Amino acid sequence: MAIDWNKPQPAPKALWKLVHTNFPSLRFLGIYNNRNVRGGATPSAHAEGRALDIGILVTIPLEKEIGDGLFKIFIDNATELGIEHAIWNKQIWSTTKGGPRNYKGADPHTNHIHVAFSQATSQTTNFPKTSFAIAAFRSGLDDLKKYRRTVG
Ligand SMILES: [Zn+2]
After folding, report:
1. FRET pair for 14, CA 20 to 30 Å: which of 64, 83, 115, 133?
2. What is the pLDDT of residues 53-105, one digit of tens each?
3. In angstroms, what is the span from residue 151 Cα to ligand 1's centroid?
4. 30-54 pLDDT tens trace
5. Are 128 and 78 in contact (CB under 8 A)?
6. Distance from C-alpha of 49 to C-alpha of 29, rounded to nearest angstrom
7. Do the domain assignments include residue 146?
8. Domain-embedded: residue 102
9. 64, containing H or E segment
10. Does residue 5 lie in a domain region?
11. How far is the CA of 74 from the centre of ligand 1 (A)?
C-alpha cells in the first residue's frame, strides 16, 4: 500500500507520545504542515508529516534544561529513532553532516525542538533505548528538583 504523505506519519506521532508521557508540560506544535522551510524554497519535512515540533522555551530555565537533555538524547539515539536532522536553540544535528553545529536558518528554534525523520524511518514506532533514556532523564530531573527543595 502506498504511503499517504499528506498526514502525520507514525514515527513523529510515537515520539510525541513518548515525550508527552514523560513531560506533560511541553507543548505539541505540530507534525503535518504543507509548507516550505522558513525563509527558503524547499519543502519542509513537515510537508510530508515526518517532522515533529515540541514546544519548549529557552527563556524558562527548567524548560531549557529539558530541551538540552532531549536534544542530546535524540542525537545519541538518532540511529534507533531514524532521525534525519534535529534543530534546537541555534544548533543542528544531521545524518549527512553530524553535529551539533551552529544553525543559521531564519528560525533560531529557541521556542521548539524540531525533529525530522527520513521517509524510510518515518514509519517506525518502536524506540526501546530512547524510551528508557527519556524516562531515566525525567526521573533524574525529578530527583534533582526534590534535592533542590531539600537544600533550599
Ligand atoms: Zn519543525
Report:
1. 64
2. 999 999 999 999 999 999 999 999 999 999 999 999 999 999 999 999 999 99
3. 39
4. 999 998 888 888 889 999 999 999 9
5. no
6. 13
7. yes
8. yes
9. helix 61-76
10. no
11. 14
pTM of the full structure? 0.94
Q: Ligand 1 center to residue 152 CA distance, Å?
A: 38
Q: Residue 55's closest CA among 37, 34, 45, 70?
A: 70
Q: Are 19 and 70 in contact (CB under 8 A)?
A: yes
Domain that includes residue 90, residue range:
10-151
| Ligand 1 center–CA 137 separation, angstroms | 23
Spatial neighbors of 75 by CB under 8 A, at least 6 apart, are 83, 86, 93, 99, 100
Whether residue 1 lies inside any domain: the answer is: no
Compute the average pLDDT of residues 18-23.
97
Q: How much distance in Å is there from the Cα of 11 to the middle of ligand 1? A: 14
Cα 97 to ligand 1 centroid, rounded to whole Å: 19
For residue 49, the CA-to-ligand 1 centroid distance in Å is: 10
Integer CA distances (angstroms), 42 to 47, 77, 137, in order: 10, 27, 35
